[in-house]
From TrEMBL:
Entry keywords, A to Z: Cell inner membrane, Cell membrane, GTP-binding, Ion transport, Iron, Iron transport, Membrane, Nucleotide-binding, Transmembrane, Transmembrane helix, Transport
GO function terms (MF aspect): ferrous iron transmembrane transporter activity; GTP binding
Protein name: Fe(2+) transporter FeoB
GO CC annotations, alphabetized: plasma membrane
Pfam families: FeoB_Cyto (PF17910), FeoB_N (PF02421)
Organism: Candidatus Electrothrix marina
Main location: membrane
PANTHER family listed in its UniProt record: FE(2+) TRANSPORTER FEOB, FERROUS IRON TRANSPORT PROTEIN B
Lineage summary: Bacteria, Pseudomonadati, Thermodesulfobacteriota, Desulfobulbia, Desulfobulbales
Membrane topology annotation: Multi-pass membrane protein
Occurrences of domain FeoB-type G (ranges): 6-168
Location of this chain's protein in the cell: Cell inner membrane
Length: 270
């Protein structure tokens, strides 16, 4: 079998969600797992062969967000956009759904091919938490597969779905709305980013626009490097939004954006 045929998957999710546990289960590796978050700081790579299909698996550090504020977040997000895995498997702690889905929102925004692995189903069941996986799948627009990484329960089915998604080559569309002011700014920024093909190789225009409004230093710098004149136009528009939100809500754009992600999550969990 050629390595080129392997499905390239990245395990991503919150700290302590069970990424390394699944990685170890699949690759036979003995990477350290811990009861405290932030155990994995570097990415680890392994290989898994399943019914004639090879999987190249990357275990990413856990993050709560995909901003540019911490090394872990930058490692995870740069890996996803630079290495472009065939499928991102978002390991979600089923016993802590609201917090975990906040990060899932950001994978949806990034538009990466996504499968949600609902891990720690055993813990959730013990606590009497029942999750409607079909509803969750319908509302997020991506497959949701329940697993217990510690025992391997559901992992076969998860890999089958991962394989199908890698063949389909489909990218999820984000269904998240951020309120009238931000949505309006996005509607203005996106066509400009598209017209000048800013960061077009790596990021969807809607994501780049959102990051400019969030004042994400890394993305703003990349945009300026590509086109200073257009970049300045986008920054100026973003500043108008920031002032408006400050005047009307006394809030920063990134706070309003985060609030709307949580709103989306809550609407899903209702
Ligand atoms: N009961 C149960 N425990 C699990 C399951 N999966 C993982 N764990 C436990 O959860 C804890 C955290 O697991 P890790 O695999 O280290 O989590 P991680 O996502 O790699 O964490 P970071 O590297 O910090 O991002 C460990 O104590 C695991 O044994 C599961 O399905 N059920
Ligand atoms: Mg880990």
């Amino acid at each position: 079998m050629l390595m080129a045929d392997a499905v390239h998957i990245a395990l991503a999710g919150n700290p302590n969600a069970g990424k390394t546990t699944l990685f170890n289960y699949l690759t036979g590796a003995r990477q350290h797992v811990g009861n405290y978050p932030g155990v994995t700081v570097e990415k680890k790579e392994g290989f898994y062969l399943h019914e004639g299909q090879g999987f190249r698996i990357v275990d990413l550090p856990g993050t709560y967000s995909l901003t540019a504020y911490s090394v872990e977040e930058l490692v995870a997000r740069d890996y996803l956009v630079n290495e472009q895995p065939d499928v991102v498997v978002n390991i979600v702690d089923a016993s802590n759904l609201e917090r975990n889905l906040y990060l899932s929102c950001q994978f949806l925004e990034l538009g990466v091919p996504l499968v949600i692995a609902l891990n720690m189903i055993d813990v959730a069941e013990k606590r009497g938490i029942r999750i409607d996986t079909e509803k969750l799948s319908r509302l997020t627009g991506v497959p949701v597969m329940p697993i217990v990484a510690r025992t391997g329960k559901g992992v076969e089915e998860l890999l089958g779905t991962v394989q199908a998604v890698s063949r389909a080559d489909a990218r999820p569309q984000t269904l998240i709305r951020y309120g009238v002011d931000i949505d309006e700014a996005l509607r203005e920024l996106v066509p400009i980013i598209e017209e000048y093909k800013l960061l077009a190789e790596t990021y969807p225009a809607s994501w780049t626009a959102l990051k400019i409004l969030e004042n994400d230093e890394q993305i703003v710098a990349k945009v300026m490097l590509e086109n200073m004149v257009v970049g300045q136009r986008l920054i100026d528009r973003s500043a108008v939004l920031a002032r408006h939100l400050q005047d009307t809500l006394e809030a920063y754009p990134e706070t309003v954006i985060a609030d709307h992600r949580y709103g989306f999550v809550r609407s899903i969990l209702r």
